[in-house]
Amino acid sequence: MLESFEMELRQKGLPENYAVISEASTFENVAGHLENLQNLTRTFLIIVLVLGAFIMALLSVISIRERKYEIGVLRAMGMKKKTVALGIWIEILAITCVCFVLGMGAGSLLSQPVSDVILAGQTDAINVHVSVSARTAMQILGVSVLLASIAGMISISRITQCEPIKILMERN
């Protein structure tokens, strides 16, 4: 597009003794750094999601096992499996939403300083404004709720398969 831009400038009165040049190498240098940062963040996101899902499932299973007696008592009193599972699932979702709010708050406070530190070592001065749109925040919330639901349902399904009497007898 440089040729058409030069032609337009000449038509508008740019003298012939002026040269029209582009700093394509500077642009490619800056764009290259941003593409590397994008690849780094994508890889980091995948690692965080995989490890986060594993850790969430593990913590959920441990949490439910610790509450096994409580679940046995509720079931022995006549509470249905679905009601117990729904209560635990709602509890998991509430904790996930609180963690989402805290995480987004911390992320919004720390993302710009971290970005500045990462880009400070570059030879060219690069300023990048870091922000998260409402759509992206909702996508993060959706993924968080999905992962928490899957982890919760795995542990809930395992504990609700046990009979209440068996759960109560195992305590002693």
Written account of the structure:
The chain is 80% helix and 0% strand. It has 172 residues and is mainly α.
Tell me the β content: under 5%
Helix fraction, binned, reads: over 70%
Q: What ranges have pLDDT less than 50 throughout 5 or more consecutive residues?
A: none
Q: Using only CA atoms, what is the Rg?
A: 28 Å
State mean pLDDT (0 to 100 scale): 83
Sequence of secondary-structure elements: HHHHHH
Specify the structural class. mainly alpha
Task: Supply the number of helical segments.
Answer: 6
Distance separating the two termini: 80 Å
Shape: rod-shaped
Total number of beta strands: 0
Largest sheet: none
Please supply descriptive tags for the structure shown above.
rod-shaped; 6 helices; 172 residues
Set down the secondary structure blueprint.
Blueprint: H1 2-11, H2 24-66, H3 68-76, H4 81-120, H5 134-160, H6 164-171
Put the structure in a nutshell.
With 172 residues, this protein is an all-alpha fold.
